[in-house]
Write a structure and sequence with these properties.
about 70 residues
């Protein structure tokens, strides 16, 4: 499993723990649901800056998303 897949798995775990949807998280961090979905499904890459936004939206430290 590559690093993007591991990061996506960690994001999904935090979404589930917090009862958030992809749509809600995407809205909170100012990105499209489609972009987030494409990343979580392995179709797109993601920048470190965007990962930081997602960590902020999930209210977790960035290191919890990156293996």
């Amino acid at each position: 499993m590559g690093i993007d897949a591991k990061v996506a798995k960690n994001i999904r775990l935090h979404l589930k723990k917090q009862g958030l949807t992809q749509e809600k998280l995407a809205y909170e961090v100012g990105m499209s649901k489609g972009y987030l979905s494409n990343f979580l499904n392995g179709k797109k890459g993601i920048s470190l800056a965007t990962l930081q936004k997602l960590a902020t939206g999930l209210q977790v430290p960035l290191k919890e998303l990156i293996p």
